[in-house]
Amino acid sequence: MSSEVPESAVPPPAEAGESSPAPSRRTFIATTGAVGGAVVAGGVTGGTYLLSPQETAAADTSPSSRVSLTVNGTRRTVRVDNRTSLLDLLREHFDLTGSKKGCNAGACGACTVLVDGQRVNSCLTLAVRLEGAAVTTIEGLADGGQLHPLQQAFVEQDAFQCGYCTPGQIMSGVGCIKEGHTGSPEEIREWMSGNICRCGCYVKIVRALEQTAGRK
Question: What positions does the domain 2Fe-2S ferredoxin-type occupy (predicted)?
């Protein structure tokens, strides 16, 4: 591709003795656009910015690790990309889709699970950091056909509408109760504030936690 500027984009030279007029805005844009396009196109077609096949293959090969952890009482071992989050491990590798991907930035709480009994945002937790850990998801709360007391309380208190945030709300609620942060509705709201319900069921969610904690 030629990098020459088209003659039509360059103003004619001024006659001898005449002052050169300032270029119009249209002429300036046409000239700079033609030159810039030629430079960029020449650089790309010349291979300046292209990787070699070996470099491309190396860039596409991400480091992976083998990790073993217990999920809902079952020991699982898998090799995953080191960048894989716990949420993606659960959903894409173990087919445990109860934990929801909401914001994928740790802001909504829809992906909350328990790791060694502590509630965490699984979208922010790297799977390879959990060697030997015990993970509990919403699928692992019920005892056979018997719902967990907080799951049952959510049903009885009608503490959900669309249900998308409900798994994270329940998992976070289990952690909240275990931590002892259920002394009052205000305390429950404070310690559950990391879980967002876009349907606005907060009052009933608080009642469900109170019921499970034995305060109601």
Answer: 65-141
In whole angstroms, give the CA distance from residue 102 to residue 162: 13
Instruction: Please provide the distance, in angstroms rounded to a whole number, between the alpha carbons at the two ends of the chain.
Output: 78
Contact by Cβ (8 Å): 166, 148: no
Q: pTM of the full predicted structure?
A: 0.73
Query: Domain spans of the chain?
Result: 7-56, 62-140, 143-216
CATH number assigned to the domain covering 143-216: 1.10.150.120
Task: Give the Cβ contact number of residue 36 at 10 Å.
Answer: 10
φ, ψ at 65 (rounded to 5°): -140, 155
The topology (CATH level 3) of 62-140 is Ubiquitin-like (UB roll) (3.10.20)
Given a contact cutoff of 8 angstroms between Cβ atoms, the answer to whether 77 and 141 are in contact is no
Mean pLDDT by 10 residues, the chain (216 residues): 52 53 57 49 46 62 93 97 98 98 97 98 98 98 94 97 98 98 97 97 98 85
